[in-house]
């Protein structure tokens, strides 16, 4: 599973941005992930720069690496997208 | 056989005995009771409203006790945070564990955490749950909400008290919320500034005075504003509509850039709540619910199933919430 997360390179893998901008929606019951997604979206809305988008992707990736054992279903949705 | 205490209301003597036996406890009760407790591995906060196995209760004579299962925890750390250090709370939290946070209501700490917690480093990465401590509503203006550091015996009416819990290998904490409020199908509100009060609001994109709007539309302010955070419904409860000053205040901040709607009406809280409770494979390690649910839904004497704990002035699941039950479970990682 680590490889699943690791495959998504912070700098350019499109799945993170698709998840952030809502184009990719995943089913999850993780309230922390839902809150974090909303905060990242707001942050990018307030500062729509490439650096801001990359920072958001980095945080998301960090989250999934930390919680990958409990988020297999979410990672599978990311992988399949 | 385990002597793990089920979450419940205890007498002062029962609580003292639990502390003295070395148990790790999260306590909620009247300030004058918590003051009587010996030093030990506990944190506590003031509140006289509870949901217990006997139903909703208002009492200044008992203490609600949650015990941390020693089979789950590797290490705990208890510490105060002030407004200059609270931004470190998630960064300080253990990599594999969770944090219980108690904040006294109506303080700078309360304001700061409510408005800025989502920006703190490592927020949402590590589980943080807790509640805003309060007082009996008859005592408003007479006494202050308080938190206690059982390790040192100190109390504070300004700072937050925290217990960081590092879990044993193979365990992970999970925070859940139960919010029976859903967005209604009415107008959409956006606020120009993040804060606990506002004069203006954008109603479907058109600016107007929010107090005027609420009065003209005869809005029941027991009904919260609800925002949809990627499927998680988060409430902001109304505190007051000031007709003269034309301002509206809230129990949690509204955030600029977030779209809110008034909640759809809930006819029967107890039934709706019971139906919304998740089926859990593990015991609930910690839970709390909102005093506004207790008051508005007249929960005194009524039972709301297996989630027991204090009824609080604000609930914390990472960030500050309103009119929401928060719980923590520890599962196999």
Oligomeric state of shown chains: heterodimer
Which sheet architecture does the biggest sheet of chain B show?
6 strands, mixed
> Which regions of chain B have little confidence, pLDDT < 50, spanning 5+ residues?
none
Q: Return the average pLDDT of chain A rounded to an integer.
A: 83
Mean pLDDT of chain B: 95
> What integer value in Å does the Rg of chain A equal?
12 Å
Largest sheet geometry of chain A: none
Strand order of the largest sheet of chain B: 1-6-2-3-10-11
N-to-C CA distance of chain B: 25 Å
Shape of chain B: globular
User: Which structural class do you get from the secondary structure elements of chain A?
Assistant: mainly alpha
Number of beta strands of chain B: 27
Number of helices of chain A: 5
Largest interface: A-B, 22 and 25 residues
Strand content of chain B: 35-45%
Give the total of beta strands of chain A: 0
Total of helices of chain B: 7
Strand content of chain A: under 5%
Percent in helix of chain A:
55-70%
SSE-based structural type of chain B: mainly beta
Which secondary structure elements does this structure contain, and how are they paired or packed?
The complex is a heterodimer of chains A (81) and B (333).
Chain A lengths: L1 H6 L6 H7 L10 H16 L3 H17 L5 H9 L1
Chain B lengths: L7 E3 L1 H9 L3 E6 L1 H4 L7 E5 L2 E4 L2 E4 L4 E6 L4 E9 L7 H4 L4 E8 L3 H9 L11 E6 L13 E3 L4 E3 L3 E8 L3 E8 L10 E2 L4 E4 L1 E4 L2 E4 H7 L8 E5 L2 E5 L1 E5 L4 E8 L5 E3 L6 H8 L7 E7 H6 L12 E4 L2 E3 L1 E3 L3 E8 L1
Parallel strand pairs in B: 2-3, 8-9, 23-24
Antiparallel strand pairs in B: 1-6, 2-6, 3-10, 4-5, 4-24, 7-12, 8-12, 9-25, 10-11, 13-27, 14-16, 15-21, 16-17, 18-19, 18-22, 20-21, 23-27, 25-26
In short:
Chain A has 81 residues and is mainly α. Chain A has helices at 2-7, 14-20, 31-46, 50-66, 72-80.
Give an overview in words.
The complex is a heterodimer of chains A (81) and B (333). Chain A is built from 5 helices and no strands. With 81 residues, chain A is mainly alpha-helical. Chain A starts with a helix and ends with a helix. The model of chain A has no long low-confidence stretch (mean pLDDT 83). Chain B is mainly β. Chain B contains 7 helices and 27 strands. In chain B, the strands form 6 sheets. In chain B, strands 1-6-2-3-10-11 form a 6-stranded mixed sheet. Classes of the chains: A mainly alpha (81), B mainly beta (333). The interface between A and B is medium-sized, with 22 and 25 residues.
